[in-house]
Amino acid sequence: MTKKYAALLRGINVSGHKRVPMPELRTVLGELGHTDIATHLQSGNAVFRSEDEDESALAAALEQAIHERFGFSVDCIVRSGPYLAAVADGCPFPAAELEGKQLHVTYLDRAMDAERLTGLDAQAYLPEAFELGDRCVYLYAPDGLGRSKLAAALARPQLTKGLTATTRNWNTVAKLVEMTRV
Q1: Given 3.30.70.1280, 3.10.290.10, 3.40.1190.20, 2.40.50.100, which CATH number is that of 3-83?
Q2: Where does the record locate the signal sequence feature (predicted)?
């Protein structure tokens, strides 16, 4: 039985770097044997069906195929539709009351140990706030991600060392949930 997934590619099509056209990404996913393929925006969001249930293996195969096709490495995180819905449902912030640019989810390739965050003085960044979730970090940034000092602090190498992370605004989070519904 096939399952719907979203592939979240990190750092593509930003300022002309690591260019991956979405039609070619859809082709790559098809060549990997996936079906019901669709992309969202130009920032590396693809939805597909697969019989494989190993998200890490799906991500590794996509990373390899992208490297072979385009000649550069791209980190990928693959998550199932039910996982994406659970992340959206578990949001600790009032998503319905906020603009999409104010709320973000950073998806992680694995769980982040909460001890990594003990040295971060969250009070110093108010009204910005974050919460650790299941293989994700929720970020409330009222002035947007680009102006967020908390987002910059959360991205420091000592906090993210050894993790693959990629961030999506709430509009994209909601759209991927919609696209991965069975």
Answers
A1: 3.30.70.1280
A2: none
